[in-house]
Amino acid sequence: xxxxxxxxxxxxxxxxxxxxxxxxxxxxxxxxxxxxxxxxxxxxxxxxxxxxxxxxxxxxxxxxxxxxxxxxxxxxxxxxxxxxxxxxxxxxxxxxxxxxxxxxxxxxxxxxxxxxxxxxxxxxxxxxxxxxxxxxxxxxxxxxxxxxxxxxxxxxxxxxxxxxxxxxxxxxxxxxxxxxxxxxxxxxxxxxxxxxxxxxxxx
Length: 203
Known about the structure:
five-stranded mixed β-barrel
């Protein structure tokens, strides 16, 4: 009976797969929006033909998204039609050379938590979390300051200015907010084996 049931389930699964021709589920990727299409940091182009989440690509310059890859776009290389299931805008900022930074950009260094950090598409990408008072509308400032050392290596320092919207253990309105931010560093880091050090005041 067990063997019969197993064969029956296998036949049912095979039938289900035949009805769904989706190539890949839950593809998570970051990239830039060009002419209404999503171009991933890996060089693939995604055309959104279905969408099950909020947000519009044409209102963003850079984003991170999750999608189901439905099929390869006919007549195109490295291009796919997708079902968009999750979408978040990514803040993009130019790194600042320490020699060009203003006194205000260098003076403040509030704590920040880095949830993820990776390099792709010429960008240093971070998923950062900072404490803030949810009853206020104070915006925080994030900058990446860099210094080139004598041996050619680079030191990047992530600077966070909370504008006095700091964590207070006695304040029940303090919560942890999160966002993605990308810094283009391809013109600064011009070697594949470059040594990079990243510093921040940790929360």
